């Protein structure tokens, strides 16, 4: 029988976090705990109000969400137990009967607005930030706002009775967001030897070529590095923090490489050991494969 788990997300029903959480945990039934910010998501997970948290960390068009690395540094006891790359299809929607010419303002999550910069500039559409894509559609519907459009998913359009003004408005069709699955109870989720990915934050001095030495070490250990992201350091700091993702199909080699890095850096925070998800490139290849099968059949 499917058990029910509670998952804290940023945003509400029909947001991309909602879709990501349900997809990751399917076929388990997920009860969603909507949060108004990433801070609140972490707080709820910390307080034990949710079993897991799902948090966006990186988008193929807009880049890394650096403030979420800061939260992961703050909540040191959280563990990343998994990840998911989700295709993000953005759409422009408004109250039924509205036309593109009627729209004076577009509201959405700041990352969603960034993903649709080309479309918005082309149509000279001023924007206003909101906490969530789907909640922007809900706001228009609840307040009966004319002259305002939202950028959100097709599920949000359906849920809140919006009409599509323009589908697929992101700058590129291969728009993907990577979501982290977080647990605040590492003991209940001990990493399994099937883990083939690790996420770390290392602290290294500003001076010297420490980062070069770290990368060189990983190269000699034959570890793949899918991500290196510098994280802003507090003012006056003499060192900086770098988020690094490591991949290796041999779990024990991955552990060994992490041990080797420890004496080379000032501090190393292991954010989690988990199984890597299909990358956007792999998902695109699957999608193209499915398309050609349906055309040929
Ligand atoms: O507003 C939403 O629907 C979200 O889930 C937020 C969010 C984000 O935080 O990056 C998630 C994925 C998309 O890339 C755009 C926005």
Automatic annotation (TrEMBL):
Gene3D superfamilies: 3.30.70.260, Periplasmic binding protein-like II
Class of this enzyme: lyase
Pathway: Amino-acid biosynthesis; L-phenylalanine biosynthesis; phenylpyruvate from prephenate: step 1/1
Cellular component terms (Gene Ontology): cytoplasm
Catalytic activity reported: prephenate + H(+) = 3-phenylpyruvate + CO2 + H2O
Keyword terms: Amino-acid biosynthesis, Aromatic amino acid biosynthesis, Lyase, Phenylalanine biosynthesis
The UniProt record lists the keyword Magnesium: no
Lyase keyword on record: yes
Domain Prephenate dehydratase: 6-184
This enzyme's EC code(s): 4.2.1.51
Listed GO biological process terms: L-phenylalanine biosynthetic process
Record PROSITE patterns: PREPHENATE_DEHYDR_1, PREPHENATE_DEHYDR_3
Residues the UniProt record annotates as site (Essential for prephenate dehydratase activity): 177
MF annotations from Gene Ontology: prephenate dehydratase activity
A Pfam match: PDT
CDD domains in the record: PBP2_Ct-PDT_like (cd13631)
Protein name stated in the entry: prephenate dehydratase
């Amino acid at each position: 029988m499917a058990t029910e788990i509670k998952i804290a997300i940023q945003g509400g029903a029909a947001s991309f976090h909602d879709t990501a959480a349900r997809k990751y945990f399917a076929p388990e039934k997920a009860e969603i705990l909507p949060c108004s910010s990433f801070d609140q998501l972490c707080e709820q997970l910390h307080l034990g109000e949710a079993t897991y948290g799902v948090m966006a960390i990186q988008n193929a068009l807009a880049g890394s969400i650096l403030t979420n690395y800061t939260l992961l540094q703050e909540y040191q006891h959280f563990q990343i137990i998994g990840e998911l790359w989700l295709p993000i299809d953005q759409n422009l929607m408004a109250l039924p009967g509205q036309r593109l010419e009627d729209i004076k303002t577009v509201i959405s999550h700041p990352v969603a607005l960034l993903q649709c910069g080309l479309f918005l500039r082309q149509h000279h559409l001023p924007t206003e930030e909101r906490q969530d894509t789907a909640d922007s559609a809900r706001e228009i519907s609840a307040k009966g706002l004319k002259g305002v459009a939202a950028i959100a998913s097709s599920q949000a359009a359906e849920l809140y009775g919006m009409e599509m003004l323009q589908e697929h408005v992101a700058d590129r069709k291969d728009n993907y967001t990577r979501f982290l699955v977080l647990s605040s109870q590492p003991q209940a989720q001990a990493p399994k030897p099937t883990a083939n990915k690790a996420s770390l934050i290392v602290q290294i001095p500003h001076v010297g070529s420490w980062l070069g030495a770290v990368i060189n070490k990983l190269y000699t250990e034959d570890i793949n590095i899918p991500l290196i992201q510098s994280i802003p350091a507090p003012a006056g700091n003499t060192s900086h923090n770098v988020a690094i993702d490591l991949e290796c199909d041999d779990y024990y080699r991955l552990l060994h490489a992490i041990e080797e890095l420890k004496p080379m850096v000032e501090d190393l925070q292991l954010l989690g050991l988990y199984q890597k998800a299909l990358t956007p490139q792999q998902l695109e290849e699957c999608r193209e494969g499915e398309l050609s099968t349906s055309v040929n059949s």
